[in-house]
């Protein structure tokens, strides 16, 4: 940039570096998406096209930033976790914040025709974003647990007479207009997802939103499950995890170090999870295997290193390679979309690099 007498104005630009050695989370959130999804006729109660488009926009962010190791999306928002040691843009808050929002928004518009063929984009969508720092692993896990719990909750509105309904959101495709109403603190997450599933089933069956709300007033979870099954033949637990748990984007290690299991682990987590994946079970089993080997060493017994399936010892060269391999950092490899529980331990045990 050429020197000039006007260059002094640069002194008004304040540096805004983020604290070092802290986890960076960037959350992108749609602005005015109640109106946007109404104008573009998103399907109710779930619009997979809209969710797939959000996933494509999130993938574009991860393609641009290798240091984004995890993304979680639900409704009209996405959260991105950067490696704790990242130095992207010298950790400048404004640069990270604006670039992530810009890439996400432009990718959303660019891919619109792919996911909504034949549907004209009537006006440009906009997204805001914020950067939040978290000091440790607990806070990061609690943040993503909060967002997944919130994925079951898209808001509740109520009138002075006690009537109301779900507020508009992508995963449920819309709801009662919010403007003249007041938000209330949400009840437990799964109850709200169950409520909205019942609500839209009733609306599609011919009831008005107000009538559907009155039908559901005073009902508990058992009543709602019974209503869905007896009236609509729907088992709530059969609803795809895509709509119940949101979307998780992570990378897969392209050169995984061989690990060995003594046996399959049926208990992926102490609390159990009907949606536990084989990968989650693997993580739990590996953890148990390491505990067994540590105990064996302490007792002076044979702990011969990495094992193959069936428990036999790995060839010496392969075991040596496993020891020398650089730990995977989550910055390379194929990006995959998952729909699973990120609140319980198995997801994180299977991917220790996320919090490294």
TrEMBL record:
Binds 2 magnesium ions per subunit. One of its GO terms (molecular function) is GTP binding. Residues 6-135 form the tRNAHis guanylyltransferase catalytic domain. Pfam families: Thg1, Thg1C. Residues 296-326 are annotated as: Disordered. GTP binds at residues 29-34, 75-76. It catalyses: a 5'-end ribonucleotide-tRNA(His) + GTP + ATP + H2O = a 5'-end phospho-guanosine-ribonucleotide-tRNA(His) + AMP + 2 diphosphate + H(+). GO terms for biological process: tRNA modification. Mg(2+) 1 binds at residues 29-30, 76. Its EC number is 2.7.7.79. Mg(2+) 2 binds at residues 29, 76. The keyword Amino-acid biosynthesis does not apply. Keywords: GTP-binding, Magnesium, Metal-binding, Nucleotide-binding, Nucleotidyltransferase, Transferase, tRNA processing. Its cofactor is Mg(2+). InterPro entries: Thg1_C_dom (IPR025845), tRNAHis_GuaTrfase_cat (IPR024956), tRNAHis_GuaTrfase_Thg1 (IPR007537), tRNAHis_GuaTrfase_Thg1_sf (IPR038469). It is an enzyme of class 2 (transferase). Residues 189-343 form the Thg1 C-terminal domain. Adds a GMP to the 5'-end of tRNA(His) after transcription and RNase P cleavage. Belongs to the tRNA(His) guanylyltransferase family. This is tRNA(His) guanylyltransferase. It comes from Vanrija pseudolonga. The gene is THG_1.
């Amino acid at each position: 940039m050429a020197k000039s007498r006007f260059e002094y104005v640069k002194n008004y630009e304040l540096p805004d570096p983020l604290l070092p050695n802290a986890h960076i989370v960037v959350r992108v959130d749609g602005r005015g998406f109640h109106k946007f999804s109404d104008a573009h006729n998103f399907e109710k109660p779930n619009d997979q096209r809209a969710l797939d488009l959000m996933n494509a926009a999130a993938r574009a962010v991860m393609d641009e930033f290798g240091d984004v190791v995890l993304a979680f999306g639900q409704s009209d928002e996405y959260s991105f976790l950067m490696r704790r040691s990242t130095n992207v843009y010298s950790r400048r808050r404004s640069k990270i914040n604006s670039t992530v929002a810009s890439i996400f928004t432009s990718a959303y518009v660019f891919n619109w025709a792919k996911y909504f063929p034949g549907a004209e984009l009537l006006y440009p969508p906009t997204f805001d974003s914020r950067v939040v720092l978290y000091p440790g692993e607990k806070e990061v896990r609690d943040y993503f647990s909060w967002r997944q719990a919130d994925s079951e909750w898209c808001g509740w509105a109520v009138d002075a007479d006690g009537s109301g309904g779900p507020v508009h959101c992508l995963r449920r495709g819309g709801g009662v207009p919010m403007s003249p109403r007041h938000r209330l603190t949400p009840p437990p997450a799964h109850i709200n997802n169950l409520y909205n599933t019942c609500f839209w089933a009733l609306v599609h069956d011919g009831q008005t939103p107000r009538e559907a709300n009155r039908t559901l007033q005073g009902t508990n979870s058992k009543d709602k499950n019974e209503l869905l099954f007896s009236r609509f033949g729907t088992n709530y637990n059969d609803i795809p995890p895509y709509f119940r748990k949101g979307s998780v984007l992570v990378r897969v290690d392209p050169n995984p170090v061989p690990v060995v299991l003594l046996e399959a682990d049926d208990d992926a987590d102490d609390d159990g999870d009907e949606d536990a994946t084989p990968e989650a079970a693997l993580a739990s089993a590996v953890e148990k295997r390491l505990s067994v080997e540590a105990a064996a060493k302490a007792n002076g017994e044979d702990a011969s290193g990495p094992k193959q399936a069936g428990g036999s010892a790995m060839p010496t060269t392969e075991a040596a390679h496993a020891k020398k391999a650089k730990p995977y950092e989550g910055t390379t490899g194929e990006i995959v979309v998952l729909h699973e529980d990120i609140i319980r331990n198995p997801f994180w045990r299977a991917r220790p690099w996320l919090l490294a």
